[in-house]
Every structure is written in structure tokens, then in C-alpha cells.
Amino acid sequence: MHIICNPKSGMGKGRKRLNEVTSYLESWGTDYQIYLTQYPGHMGELLVSCLSQFKEEDRLILVGGDGSLHELVNLLADRGLDLPLAFVSAGTGNDFSRYYQADKESIEDLLAPMFKGQVRRLKIGRVGPTLDKAGGVFVNSLGFGFDGQVIHESETLKAKGGFWQVPGANQVRYLVSLFRSLRRVPKFALDVKLGDHSQHFSDVSLVAVMLNPYFGGGIQLDPRIAELEDDLALVVIHDLDWQAIPGLLYQILWRKGQGDSKHLAFYRGPSCNLSLTPAIPGQVDGEAIFSPARSFSCRLGQQAFYL
User: Fold this and answer.
1) What's the rounded Cα separation, in Å, for the pair 112 and 176?
2) Is the pTM of this model over 0.85?
């Protein structure tokens, strides 16, 4: 077994989860090798070392958060490798595991599919051309506007240390960042194309391409996303004034996206083309990025997981 781990993920939760994984493997007499990420970009170097020793019967385990998963899936995609992953979540948001591993609580539950050879091919998003540091692939969501502003605010709070880096403070930090971002809700123009359908929005606050219903550490933007097996979802929040914000927040945060809103447009399809003006803050799988003022496309791809 080859284990890549980000020990700092989840404010140190990565190290704890790694110990649980190794204890479980040792109980079965399974050999393993550990690769610990130590700095940004280190995972790419570790993967090269891992692959140089990889045998046909070997398995790859990742211990980390959504950001670590995003990075590893991009590295595999860049190399054209169709290598199944066993994922042990150890982040603060954990949107991927919240959706795909909700019924798996213990390390045994998470790793049993790997030992049984149970592989499931999940949809991922492919972006072209590559956006900033986002890479060409995402596993949860790609968004611009308000959610990007919230992520940037959240990272600013996290950098201050103290309470904001305490394990379990992620949702509090996200909610504080959300309300702080209300002071300067982004506004931008957006052109959308899905198949034969085109739509122009002149006053957009958020656009998100989503593969599962969750973002921001468990916030459910729209429950209809869970019903899409072979499509990606595109959610646009538009023409939003101050009077409409409380009602929309209530719908998303407390009603879990249930109900309709004239300020929320929902689309589905295997691909979409987006054009944003001007450049605005964004997020990919919970990591802050900036969008250039140009067009880009998203389409579906696949990644194999032991699930």
C-alpha cells in the first residue's frame, strides 16, 4: 500500500487519520509506505517517487482534505493515469466525503472496498483552458463571485491563527466569512451556453459548476444536483438586491436549498461554456482562485475510486 498524506490538513487531523489507517493496515499484516507532503507542490514529487515503486497489485491511499484530493486527481489526470484511489477524508470542509462516503464512518468502512476490489467511476469536471492555479480538473465545484469572495475571506481569517485554526471551527469561519462578504457582494456579467441554449446575465453575484450538492463545508446549494448522474449542474444567482438576500440565505442555509427563487437559475448538461466579465474571485474545490475575464468550458470526466 502506498499512502500519500497531508499531515496538516484539517488543522492536524491528517496526522491523526494517518495513524488510524496504518493501525488498521498493521492489524491485517499489510505492508505500506508513507509519503508526507511538506510544502505546496510537494505532492507532485511524492507521486513520482510512489509511481516508480508501484506494482500491479499495489494500491494508492490518500489521506487529506478536498484540496489534497483536488491536487492528486489533477496530477493523475495530467499524466493520463487511470489509477483508482482510496480516499480517507481529513479536511475541514470534506464536501466530497459528505456526499460519496456519508455511510462510511470508520477506517474499516473506508478501506474495505479497496481490499474487495470494489471500484466505482465517479464524475469529475474538466476545465479548458486551465484557470489560474485551478488545474484542469475539479472534484466538487468550481465557482466565481460570492462563494469565491467567501473563500478568500475565510482564508484571510484562517491566516490570523488562534481560534480560526482550531479543529472544528471551519463552519463558524465560513459563516463569519459569508456575512462579512455581504458588505461587498460581487457583481459581474455572465454569458452561458449549454448545448443549443444561450443566456446572458448582466447582474450576477454567483455562478457555480457543481458535481455534488455541497460546498463550503456542508452547505447545500440546490438539492436537485444530487439527482444528476450523468450531468453537471450550473447554478446562477442573479439580479440580487439587498431585500432579496435574507430570503435567499434562509432558503440555502436553513431550508437546504428547498424551494424556488426568481434569483436562482438552474441548468444541467454534460458540458457548458462560460464567459465572465470582469475578472473576479473564485474557488475550486474550496481553494481560492481568480477568474480571468475570458471564456472557458467545463465538461464531464471520470476518476476511479474504491467505494
Assistant:
1) 38
2) yes
